[in-house]
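Continuing the batch. This is chain 6 of the set; chains 1 through 5 are on the previous pages. Same settings as before, nothing changed between runs. Recording input and output for traceability.
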Amino acid sequence: MPDDEGHPRPDEMDLRTVLHALADPLRFAVIARFLAEPEDTARTCAYFRLPVSKSTTSHHFKVMREAGLLRMIDNGNSRTATLRRREIDARFPGLLDLVRAEAPPADRDRPAAEEED
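Output for chain 6:
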């Protein structure tokens, strides 16, 4: 059962749900960008500047959270996300390595933006 914020425990993460979340090009790019950052880097949704509305951006982050890819932290008037790298690596060994290898060079080699929004 997910926690109060909707994060599944690692043993609850379902491969099909994770793959569904990664199947969308924008969500795949978000995860690839997190992989280009130092571990435990926290970013707001706005940091990624997705070419969609705020509500669609929120939907994408909800899908990634519910799949177990991201941990969302409420900071009062904003939320930040961190990649659940260690938990994903333990549950699905090699998956994030595949994402990193398949990411376009721009997503693989540098962070999404120069500064936090």
